[in-house]
Design brief:
Layout: E1 7-8, E2 25-29, E3 35-41, E4 49-53, H1 61-77, E5 91-96, E6 105-110, E7 113-118, H2 121-125, H3 127-138, E8 142-145, H4 149-155, E9 162-166, E10 172-177, E11 180-185, H5 199-208, E12 213-217, H6 223-230, E13 235-240, H7 243-255, E14 262-266, H8 269-277, E15 282-287, H9 299-316, E16 317-327, H10 334-347, E17 350-359, E18 377-385
Helix pairs in contact: 1-3, 5-6, 8-9, 9-10
Domain RlmI-like PUA: 3-54
Family: Belongs to the methyltransferase superfamily. RlmI family.
Organism: Sorangium cellulosum (strain So ce56) (Polyangium cellulosum (strain So ce56))
């Protein structure tokens, strides 16, 4: 709190006065009565207050408009949207919750469509103000709500899934990232529709892929696979359990003229890593699993799972090859991920030398006082036999 951390945990609250209810704006004071700022209240959460200001000023429509405009300006400073030939990008994170001073609010832009996730009941109660500000700043074709039902239930509200403003006939997202075209059905329910946070790592994979046999495990719609194929990979295998994701990925690859270099296969990625280890091994393996540690309480179990994955991925990588290992769990630190890679490599009778590290892109900013915001970590390592 004192350094600017945006959360007030339940155990830090001595008392609540004035009969605040879910979603209310509350004033936070220290034990001596000095005002620390204002936040939005979620009584059912382990984080009952998320801070919006460090002074006694209202959390009103003007604040939301200013911070949304500031977030858009920051993306423009980063060069987003990008128009350089071969690097065109019109899909990126527009508002990253605490990173843009709007805890609980995620907004992604996909071409001319805005997709939102309303992460707290306080944000839900102010959705009209938020939608108005987004409409005024961007004039999108549509605003789509992709708030997970499980999160809404936890926060005590009902999610309005689908188009909430604009074109009611919208059923897919069409956008460009790094010059590659994507068409993603709204029904494909991962995050806001796409993993925008791995854009910089996809660029690195493309650089590393030339003349390599590549395995893209947990591929979703094959973004790493397409990056590798465009980078000159000799062969690419893309694996995911979701039949829909595989079908969409194959169609995206076809649209970009890359399908002849990628084999999309529906399978359990863990089994695919085991099967690959019985073969000659791949020159480049990308292992980007879904979140394994949803909370700190599940961290130890998740680390065991990451170690097994790391071992399988190391076995699937030929000696002298490259492994990309990722974690999107905020409870798993970079040191944790590095340690499970070392242990997994040892279990596989291999050794891993990390030569590159990647995090979420600049459109996913993290306050300096908020280490929990750095959720995405990726290691790139050379794998050799002992």
């Amino acid at each position: 709190m004192w350094s600017g951390h945006p959360w007030v945990f339940a155990q830090a609250i001595a008392r609540i006065e004035g009969g605040a209810v879910a979603g209310d704006e509350v004033v936070v004071t220290d034990p001596y009565g000095s005002v620390l700022g204002r936040g939005l209240y979620t009584p059912r959460s382990a984080i009952p207050v998320r801070m919006y200001t460090r002074e006694d000023r209202p959390i009103d429509a003007a604040l939301f408009r200013h911070r949304i405009e500031r977030a858009i300006a920051h993306r423009r400073e980063l060069g987003l949207p990008a128009r350089a030939p071969g690097h065109e990008t019109d899909a990126f994170r527009l508002i990253h919750a605490e990173g843009d001073g709007l805890p609980g609010l995620i907004v992604d832009l996909f071409g001319d469509v805005v997709v939102v996730q309303l992460g707290t009941i306080g944000i839900k109660r102010r959705e009209g103000v938020i939608f108005d500000a987004l409409q005024a700043a961007l004039s999108p074709r549509a605003i789509v709500d992709r708030t997970p039902e499980s999160l809404a239930k936890l926060e005590g509200f009902t999610a309005d899934a689908g188009v909430v403003r604009g074109d009611p006939a919208l059923d897919q997202l069409r956008f460009v990232e790094r010059g590659l075209r994507y068409t993603i059905p709204l029904a494909l329910g991962h995050k806001t529709g796409f993993y925008l946070d791995q854009r910089t790592l996809r660029t690195r994979v493309e650089q590393l892929a030339h003349n390599r046999r590549v395995l893209d495990a947990f591929c979703f719609v094959g973004t790493f696979a397409m990056a590798a194929a465009r980078g000159g990979a000799s062969e690419v295998l893309a694996i995911d359990e979701s039949a829909t994701a595989i079908e969409v990925g194959a169609e995206c690859a076809r649209e970009n003229g890359l399908l002849d270099r990628i084999k999309f296969t529906r399978d359990d990625a863990r089994k695919a890593l085991q099967n690959a280890s019985r073969q000659a091994g791949y020159d480049l393996v990308i292992c980007d699993p879904p979140k394994l540690a949803g909370t700190r309480a599940s961290k130890d179990t998740a680390l065991t799972a990451y170690r097994r994955l790391a071992a399988g991925a190391c076995r699937a990588t030929r000696p002298g090859g490259v492994l990309v290992l990722c974690s999107c769990s905020s409870a798993v630190s970079l040191d944790d991920l590095t340690r499970v890679l070392a242990l997994g490599a040892r279990d596989a009778r291999m050794q891993a030398a990390v030569f590159d590290r990647h995090f979420q892109g600049g459109d996913h900013p993290v306050p300096a006082a908020f280490p929990e915001g750095l959720y995405l970590k990726s290691l790139i390592a050379r794998i050799d036999a002992l």
